[in-house]
Design goal:
about 130 residues; Fungal calcium binding protein domain-containing protein; signal
Length: about 130
């Protein structure tokens, strides 16, 4: 009888610890997903910021640009880099997982934010080009 009670106690304990994992991701898994999503966002932000910096540098090399134009381009690039750093909310994609980077970036809002920043950057570049 005592052995049956001990086995029943172990079985109850094992089942009760398994139930939360079946109904929702465990806290550890959610934290792992959050860390992975944040890493994806950081990588995307870094890559986009680098593309802004390279675009600014290549424009200056290819075109004759006045001091005002160069100053404007530096300001536009700096603004775009800071804006892209704020794109995406990692917590929005915690339950998605990290298998599909494009889905993660879309779910975090990075893609929409990136589009707005790129559009504003291109408009700024066009305005800078008109300076003499």
């Amino acid at each position: 009888m005592r052995a049956a009670t001990i086995i029943l106690a172990f079985a109850t304990c094992a089942i009760s610890t398994a139930i939360p994992q079946l109904s929702s991701p465990s806290l550890g898994r959610r934290q792992d997903n959050l860390a992975a999503v944040e890493a994806i966002l950081e990588d995307a932000r870094f890559q986009r910021a680098e593309s802004f910096r390279q675009s600014d540098g290549s424009r200056r090399q290819l075109a004759e640009c006045s001091a005002n134009c160069k100053s404007c381009l530096v300001g536009a690039t700096t603004k775009a880099v800071f804006e892209i750093a704020g794109c995406g909310v990692a917590a929005a994609a915690v339950d998605i997982g990290t298998g599909n980077v494009a889905a993660v970036l879309a779910a975090t809002g990075f893609v929409a934010c990136e589009g707005a920043v790129v559009g504003a950057f291109q408009e700024s570049q066009a305005n800078c080009d008109s300076l003499t």
